[in-house]
Structures are given as structure tokens and as C-alpha cells.
Amino acid sequence: MRFAIFLPPDASKANPVPVLYWLSGLTCTDENFMQKAGAFKKAAELGIAIVTPDTSPRGDDVADDEGYDLGQGAGFYVDATQKPWSEHYHMYSYVLKELPQIIEKNFPVSGIKSVSGHSMGGHGALVIGLNNAEQYQSISAFSPIGNPMQSPWGKKALMAYLGNDFSTWKTYDACELLAQKMSGLPILVDQGDADEFMVEQLKPEQLLKAAETSGSSLKLRMQPGYDHSYFFISSFIDDHLEFHAKHLTV
């Protein structure tokens, strides 16, 4: 597995810094956010490291699909249980356990972390953060697939990776998680109202409804005129970094 890391200038063994784990969307690699988001200046100012894993395992021996929304580049941040995916597709556990262990062993970072992401990665940030609230300080997302059990992208991925036992899908649906239990973590979600995927795939209104059901602290900001692109992310990434910085300084 590949990942990219940004370290602020003041990071050192004597001054380990907190980490924001960023999870990217469909078709992305570990490089997209680092090249396009424009996050380094603000992250350096705030003293936050950023880690961006790839969106799936890669290689000739790794299962794949002809569609852009399944297989390599589309791991969906789940632990697959169905063949042929179950051999390599364990993105949930990789982001939650293996990757932080590698980062904390090899770089001057603390164990204090938050999680964020875009689209499929926004879904990943939400479900990993909500399921493991004791390990994170805050969650944010841009245009997340908030209700994958009711989304074409989500249904395709969950059926392929997890099979037709729908009860197993709920672990990976932020709406299900938020509706069932109040989250103690602060959550920030930005959604562009000109996003072509908003109605069919993303369903931000269902995410907000689920949070209200449990009394969870989720702030949804609808951003007029913005679509699903990295222009949207780069326009508001400073806000998200400042949001996380408030909770990472513990």
C-alpha cells in the first residue's frame, strides 16, 4: 500500500505533531489531495501532519473490475468478506490500524488524530470515525456518500464486497450509525449545492436527519454554486483544518 505524508516544519522527535488522515474518493490515489487541495500552508501554520492513503490495494494480483466504481481505486473503506475481494480489500482495518502504526513508528507524530475525506473518502471518514470515536478527535467530510445503503455507488460496492446480508452493511453506513447512537465527536460536512451527484448518490439531507435523530453534533454547510471537484475542496480546506486544529490540541 502506498501513502503520502506532509509534515509541518516544526515536527520533530521533541515536538511530535497531530495527524489528519485524509481519505480520497473514487478513482483517486494517494497523490490527488496532496497535489490539488492547497492544504500545506494552513497545515504548516497550524502544526498538523496530513496523511493520505491510496484508495485501494494495487497490483496485478489484486482483484479489479472494469467499472471505475469498484475494485482498484474504489476500495470504499470496508473490510471485504466476499471473494475475490476478501484477499486484499481491507481498507477499513488498514486506515484504522495498520496505517497509523506505520506513521507513528516512522515519523515525528503523536497518537492524536482526526479524519476527513471527500465523496467515497468522506463516507470512509464518517464510518471509521463514528465506529471508533475513542481514537479520533473530530471528523469532517466534503460531499460524502452519506447513506450508501440508499446510493447506487454504495449498493454496488457493498453488495460486491460484503454480499447480500444487509445487516453487515449498516456498519459502513453513516446514516445508520448516526441514527442509532449519539456521536460525541464534532462533525463538519461541506456540500456544494451544484454537485451533480448530490441527490442520487450523496444524500446530505439524510445525513443531517440521522444526526438530529440521535442528537449528534453534525454541522452541514451547503455551499452555493460549488460542484464535486477539487476546486470545491481547495476553497474550504482551510476551514476544515482550522476546525480539526481546535480539537487536535488536547
Automatic annotation (TrEMBL):
<feature type="active site" description="Charge relay system">
    <location>
        <position position="119"/>
    </location>
</feature>
<dbReference type="InterPro" id="IPR029058">
    <property type="entry name" value="AB_hydrolase_fold"/>
</dbReference>
<feature type="active site" description="Charge relay system">
    <location>
        <position position="228"/>
    </location>
</feature>
<comment type="similarity">
    <text>Belongs to the esterase D family.</text>
</comment>
<feature type="active site" description="Charge relay system">
    <location>
        <position position="195"/>
    </location>
</feature>
<keyword id="KW-0719">Serine esterase</keyword>
<protein>
    <recommendedName>
        <fullName>S-formylglutathione hydrolase</fullName>
        <ecNumber>3.1.2.12</ecNumber>
    </recommendedName>
</protein>
<dbReference type="GO" id="GO:0046294">
    <property type="term" value="P:formaldehyde catabolic process"/>
</dbReference>
<dbReference type="Pfam" id="PF00756">
    <property type="entry name" value="Esterase"/>
</dbReference>
<dbReference type="InterPro" id="IPR000801">
    <property type="entry name" value="Esterase-like"/>
</dbReference>
<dbReference type="GO" id="GO:0052689">
    <property type="term" value="F:carboxylic ester hydrolase activity"/>
</dbReference>
<keyword id="KW-0378">Hydrolase</keyword>
<dbReference type="InterPro" id="IPR014186">
    <property type="entry name" value="S-formylglutathione_hydrol"/>
</dbReference>
<dbReference type="GO" id="GO:0005829">
    <property type="term" value="C:cytosol"/>
</dbReference>
<comment type="function">
    <text>Serine hydrolase involved in the detoxification of formaldehyde.</text>
</comment>
<dbReference type="GO" id="GO:0018738">
    <property type="term" value="F:S-formylglutathione hydrolase activity"/>
</dbReference>
